[in-house]
Structures are given as structure tokens and as C-alpha cells.
Design brief:
The chain is mainly alpha-helical. The protein has five helices and no strands.
Length: 129
């Protein structure tokens, strides 16, 4: 069952990555009419037509007709997509336990260091000014 769910999610992510809207399906008739126009006027095959409108020759042919804005997959939203989908269904249960404050006993003792090996006369301030 988990393999079926993983396959379904993978297929869903693949389909969403194409970013096809329902509006694009309704514009296929415009695509076919414009391809027929190119075949009659320029003698282009369907693959040449796709290359001129969606491929490498798109920049040279962009401003030749007004019908280009009505073709499918020409929306600006197809250029950049910000869709984040998370399929994480993990329930996090945090078990917080109250612990009483235990006072730590004072175990710090400080003594000044004193040694007889120091010569105290060397590190004295000057006596005559």
C-alpha cells in the first residue's frame, strides 16, 4: 500500500511540474488554427511551427502576429512557479515532564595564592619620586 501511495504522490508531483492549467486546454483550438495559418502562408510543418513559437526561433518570430498571446502555455506564470507541497503526515507528540528545581550545594572555595618563591622587593612602586 505504501508503494502505491508513493507512486501516486510521485505522479502528482510530475504532473504539477508541467504547470498546465485548464485554460490551456481550451486554447488548443487556437494553436491548431495558427498552425494551419503557418502551413498555408509559410509552408511550415507542425514541428517547424512549434520551434518558431516555443523553441529556439521564438525570439525572431515573437512580434510577427497578434495571435501569439492567445496560444497555450504563453502565460507568465509558467516562467516561475512557487508551489510547495508537503506530504508529511507525521504526528509529533512532545512529552514534557516537570522537574523540580534542585538546589545545587555551594562547593566553591577560593584562596589567594601565596608562595615564598616571590621576591616582593622587585614589584614595589617607587619609593622616591
Amino acid at each position: 500500500m505504501s508503494k502505491l501511495i508513493a507512486f501516486t504522490y510521485s505522479f502528482l508531483i510530475l504532473i504539477q511540474s508541467f504547470n498546465i492549467n485548464l485554460e490551456d486546454f481550451s486554447k488548443f483550438s487556437v494553436l491548431l488554427k495558427h498552425a494551419e495559418f503557418h502551413k498555408e502562408k509559410y509552408g511550415d510543418t507542425f514541428f517547424e511551427f512549434l520551434s518558431e513559437h516555443y523553441g529556439d526561433s521564438k525570439v525572431n518570430h515573437e512580434d510577427d502576429h497578434e495571435e501569439h498571446k492567445d496560444l497555450p502555455f504563453k502565460d507568465a506564470q509558467h516562467m516561475l512557479t512557487h508551489t510547495n507541497t508537503s506530504f508529511i503526515s507525521i504526528t509529533n507528540n512532545f512529552d514534557f515532564q516537570y522537574q523540580e528545581f534542585i538546589e545545587i550545594p555551594f562547593n566553591f572555595h577560593y584562596e589567594d595564592t601565596f608562595t615564598n618563591f616571590e621576591k616582593s622587593s622587585i614589584f614595589q612602586p617607587p619609593k622616591h619620586a
